[in-house]
Amino acid sequence: MILEQSPAATQSTHSSRRTFCTSLCAVLAAAALRGRAQTPPFPGKEPDPQPLKLTDITRAEMTPGRVVDYRKLGAFYLAADDRGIFALTAVCTHRGCLVLSEGPTGFGCPCHDSAYDFQGEVTEGPAKLPLRHLEVKAMEPTGLLQVDIATTVSPETRI
Ligand code: FES
Questions:
Q1: DSSP per position, 116-139
Q2: Which one of 91, 95, 132 would you pick to mutate in the ligand 1 pocket, going by the greatest count of ligand atoms within 8 A of its CB?
Q3: Are residues 58 and 89 in the same domain?
Q4: How do residues 23-53 score in pLDDT, each as one tens digit?
Q5: Are residues 89 and 141 in the same domain?
Q6: Phi, psi (5° rounding) for residue 14?
Q7: Which of 109, 122, 123 most suits a substitution to test ligand 1, by most atoms within 8 Å of the C-beta?
């Protein structure tokens, strides 16, 4: 015995399949976009569910040349140059070790000796990509600096 569907039922099945595929594509695209916005701090690890990190330092305390270590709070450094304050991820772009601050000369990776300048540009490999610059905001009314470790900004960004 062969069961056949009526043309209307076949049309309905195709329509609901198309709707399902469209919905699935939308969900996958949204997930891909979210994944791009929230880069995991370490390769193979999930993004931090709380990417906003409130530091204990104010905008006024960040004088040019200063680097403050927040590797324990969220794997980043706050730094300031003549143009203002910025945040850099501490995650080496080679294989994800945490880089060490070398003061105003930059950052060095203890794993395979990559080196970065004060703005996070690679000065010595094997790393090929610069350190990510992260979004920084001064909170009101305290002036405390908050870093969003999931949001990458242009290396030129300062506050
Ligand atoms: S992980 Fe930093 S140089 Fe390899």
A1: E-TTS-EEESS--SPPPEEEEEEP
A2: 95
A3: yes
A4: 443 443 343 334 333 444 455 567 778 999 9
A5: yes
A6: -60, -40
A7: 109
